[in-house]
Structure formats: C-alpha cells, structure tokens
Specification:
- The protein is an alpha+beta fold and about 525 residues long.
- The protein folds into five domains: about 60 residues, no CATH class; about 45 residues; about 170 residues, Nucleotidyltransferase, domain 5; about 70 residues, no CATH class; about 110 residues, no CATH class.
- The chain is built from 19 helices and 16 strands.
- The strands form five sheets. It has a five-stranded mixed sheet, sandwiched between helices.
- Strand 14 and strand 15 form a beta hairpin.
- Helix 16 crosses helix 17.
- The protein is elongated and about 155 Å long.
- About 25% of the residues are buried.
Amino acid sequence: MPKRKIEMYEYRTIIYRLQQSQSDRTIAKSGLAGRNKVSEIKKLALAQGWLDIDSKLPDDKTLATFFESKKNQVDIKSKADPHYDLIKQWALDDVQASTIHQHLIDIYGFTGAYNSVQRLVKKIKAKQPPNLTVPLHFQPGEAAQVDFGQGPVLYDERTKKEEKTWFFVMTLCWCRHQYVELITHQDIETWLNCHQNAFNWFGGVANKVIIDNPKCAIIKACYHSPEVQRSYEEFAQAYGFIINALPPRDPQKKGRVESGVKYVKKNFLPLRHLKSVQHGNKELIHWVLEQAGNRIHGSTFKKPLTQFQEIEKHQLKALPITQPEVAIWVTLTLYRDCHVRYKKVKYSAPHQLYKKVLWTKVTATTVSIYHDHELVSMHSRKFNAGDCSTKNEHLPDNARHYFERNEEWCLKKSTEIGAACEQIIEDLLTDPVLDLLRQVQLIIKLKDSYGGCRLELACQRAISFNSCNYKTIKKILKGGLEYEQINPTDSFEKLGAAYQGKGVYQRNINELKH
C-alpha cells in the first residue's frame, strides 16, 4: 500500500508528544506515523531545538520547509515531447487526447503510448489560468434567459408529416419559472411568436432578455456591439425590454436557461410518448405547472411556481394594452417578372424597381413592400408554396394590357363596335386548336387608330372573303378598302384578303349567277 501523507499539523502533534517525553512506540501506536518515521522526526526536532520543554512549536510553514516532498526534480523524457507545440495547440482547442494520439500515429508515424500524450495534455492544461466564474444575481423581474434545445422528431398535424423539433425555453432568472414550447423552425418569425407566447404566459415582460446570439435574432455577434435583427429590435421596442446578447462563445452567462433546457430534455422527454408536436405542447403545459413548477429548485431551494406567483409576477412590466403585431423585416430583390419572393410565394411590386433591394414587412396577414421608406405595394399574405399575388398596375404596359384585356373584355368591346366585329372575335376566341387572344386584342386595338365605324366595315369585308384575321383586317384599313364595293373580280391585293389555303377567287355560292 502507498504511504499515507502526513499533514503539517500531524508533524506538530508528533513533536509536541516527543516534547512531552512520549516514547516512539507509544506515538506509533496512536497511528500518527510508524516508528521509523517518528525516529526521523525526533532526530530533526532535536537538531532544531524543538524538544526543549520551553521551546515554541514550529508553525506549518516552518515544518513544510523540512517535510514537504520535493517532486518532479528530474524531468523524464517522453516520446510526445518532440510534438509539444502541436499537442499544445490542439489541447488548447479542446481536442481530446485520444484524438491527438491517433492523429499523431496517422500523420507523423508516432510510436509512443497513449498515456504519454495524455500526461502531456494534462500538464499543458494545468499550466493554463483557471476559467473561473462567479454567480450572477438578479432581482425579481430584472431578466429572463432564452435558448433553444434539440427535441425529438414528431408528427406535425399542420404539415401532415414528420418534423424535426426544438424546445424554446424562456426562464425567469430570479424565480426560475419557465415557459417551454416545441417548435419546428428556428426562423425569426417563430422566435418572435415564441417570445410573445412566453410574455402572455407570464402575464408580463422582464426588463431584460438574455440571448446567446441565435441567427434569427443577431445578424453579427460581437463582444461589445452586436448587430440586432431589425425585426427583433422593433419587437423589443414594442414590448419595452432590453436585448442582452452575450459575448460570443460564452454560454455560461446564461446558465439558468442552459440548465433549464437540460432539465426539460432529461426530465420531460424520457419515458413519455408524444403523438405529435401539438400533443407535446399540451403535455408541456401540464409538466411546467405541476412537476417542474413545484419541484424544489437545486439552486434557490424553493418552488419556482410559488416564487413566481407570490413575488416575481408582480415585478414584471405590464403587457402592452394592445398586443403588438409580430412583424418580420426582410430585404428582397425584385426579379424581372416584377415579383419578390418570400417563403416560396411571389408578391408583385412596380416594375420600375427591377433589381432593387426592397425592405419588406411581413405580418400574419399582410406583406408590405417599401422603397426609400415609401410603401409601394401591399398584399394579403399567402402561405402555400408556389402561390402568387399580382397587381396589374405593377406590370409593364404590354403585360398589363395582356392580363387586363381578357376574353370577357374583348367580347364586350367587340359588341360596342358592331355585329361583324363581334362575330370575328367570337370565332377567334372559340378556335379549337389555338389560343388567339393576342390576335383578338390587336384587332380591338385597331379601333384606336381607325375608329369603330371603319373597323366594323373592315370586319364585314373580311367576312365576305372568309379571311377573318388581324392581318387581313389591318390591310383593309391601311389601304382604305373598307368603303369600296365588293367586286368578285378584284385582285387579291385590292380585296385585302390574306391567303388561307383557299382559292383567291373563291365566291359565296349565293353570289354565283345561274
């Protein structure tokens, strides 16, 4: 068995007993040290004059100069020493000793044992200054901490499929009462909705919300001046709380919610069968109010729910009289089809803003698009991927006219022009093979240049020669042929008819002379 370490106060007790004339055998029987050790101490004590009856017993520091063991006088060479710099770099990056050992074997042909690497890693870490922490203290209502934690894969009744989930946890720092919700996304919209649900759950707002730089809230993490998402900043202003984004890679400063997430994952999840995300959230409500809220907390030694109801609830800021609408601000580019895209849905904006980056405000019901702080477009929000919301006034003239001048519009206009025009338009729109809407639109447009009366006469002439198409009607109007009397012997050019695969001089059977 290894020798027992003798403490300094035990050395002083042995010297005191020797001073009182106790024998080596008697002292050894007391278990303080063996006879040989007592004999060594006696010789040293005699040499130092400590056994004189009137001599003052030495203190621990003095005794340590004689009895403290001198370790590591000789450094033993290790096979890991030639790789000291590399091992130090990896060790300080928290790479495991076993991983370092295997990497040295694979890359550098290392032949030493794993223990040699392990000892060197421990020696390197022992020389580093300790990472000390101090507990943070909060007053009731002062702060809440927020974090995400990985949840199980569950069926979502909304999407009708299996989804990855996370726990959103908000913990009040003073009483440790929690709000927990299962979510299927970590985007900014979910982040804000969860905050709103948590504030409604607590019935108030903490003065400060401590977060750990999630991408849905912080654009750029920084020790002294983090860049906050516009949506989250506007939301904080509406509810009146301060955003406290922690320094990067320093989660210890929100240990309360970190512990809360672990508690949810270790206490709520095991041995519990959750049928869906929605079922899980119902179970969480009961768990927080019954089990988690009424446990004796390991740090406060009090029940979180009791502390909340009796004290902290009354110290929270009041909720706004009118609940703020959750709004997400994003920058979107207007594409050449005159639409921006948000979550796979298209929303139109004025075509003059093509390629412009536009601020877009998205709420639960509307999508508003801004350019230079001016509202340029507003739509009702759509949620199905592939949906499109288009306003014709946003389109260029040619596209707008195409969509505005639909079949109903063309039929209505042709009726106003005359019976012949109406007949041609109806025939073209009911073509069994081709979509001739563009040709119909062009025929109606001829009224702008030639007037309705001339267009009606031209349509009559086109019908007479069974050449009812835009090219013929335009040629008739351009040549002024609509006023001329129809003569069966007229040439093709004079008639204005376009060849359609029939004889140029084809006549109506009723016109033939018997």
